Amino acid sequence: MRVCATEDGICLLEFADKPLLENELVDLQRRLNAPIISGENAHIKQLKIELTEYFSGHRKAFSVTLHTLGTDFQNAVWQALGTIPYGETASYQEQATWLNNPKAVRAVARANGMNRIAIVIPCHRVIGKDGSLTGYAGGLERKRWLLDHEKKQAL
């Protein structure tokens, strides 16, 4: 996985094989108005610990500090994602309703797609209204694996 952080928190966690990841990194540099340099800070160290715990089945919620770079609407959507319980799923429609804007399903889906902090902001927990697996930047097989992993650990 690729991770980037500022002094304020984690601003990117993506799968290394994500298409167009390099474009995201360029956009991230532009939005931060700062170069991306190799290294580690306290936020990255904490994230590594928490991800190890998550994948070993010992962490159900993340506490690492995040530095999300989105609009007010996107940040609200991403916060709503954090309310979906570990091991459970919700639809884009439900998410839009939580935001008191039930007609904003497409805008919610678009904001979910702009999430740059995979797993920690759990957009993998969002499914179609009919219960089907829908788009996930990390790929549907990875989404299925994450959901199965959480369901097994939630028991």
From TrEMBL:
The active site is at C123 (nucleophile). CDD domains: ATase. It catalyses: a 4-O-methyl-thymidine in DNA + L-cysteinyl-[protein] = a thymidine in DNA + S-methyl-L-cysteinyl-[protein]; a 6-O-methyl-2'-deoxyguanosine in DNA + L-cysteinyl-[protein] = S-methyl-L-cysteinyl-[protein] + a 2'-deoxyguanosine in DNA. GO terms for biological process: DNA alkylation repair; methylation. GO terms for molecular function: methylated-DNA-[protein]-cysteine S-methyltransferase activity. Keywords: Cytoplasm, DNA damage, DNA repair, Methyltransferase, Transferase. Residues 3-66 form the Methylguanine DNA methyltransferase ribonuclease-like domain. It holds the Pfam family DNA_binding_1. InterPro entries: MethylDNA_cys_MeTrfase_AS, MethylDNA_cys_MeTrfase_DNA-bd, MethylDNA_cys_MeTrfase_DNAb, MethylG_MeTrfase_N, MGMT, MGMT_N_sf, WH-like_DNA-bd_sf. It is found in: Cytoplasm. Its EC number is 2.1.1.63. The keyword DNA repair applies. Its main location: cytoplasm. Residues 72-151 form the Methylated-DNA-[protein]-cysteine S-methyltransferase DNA binding domain. One of its GO terms (cellular component) is cytoplasm. Involved in the cellular defense against the biological effects of O6-methylguanine (O6-MeG) and O4-methylthymine (O4-MeT) in DNA. Repairs the methylated nucleobase in DNA by stoichiometrically transferring the methyl group to a cysteine residue in the enzyme. This is a suicide reaction: the enzyme is irreversibly inactivated. Belongs to the MGMT family. This enzyme catalyzes only one turnover and therefore is not strictly catalytic. According to one definition, an enzyme is a biocatalyst that acts repeatedly and over many reaction cycles. This is Methylated-DNA--protein-cysteine methyltransferase.
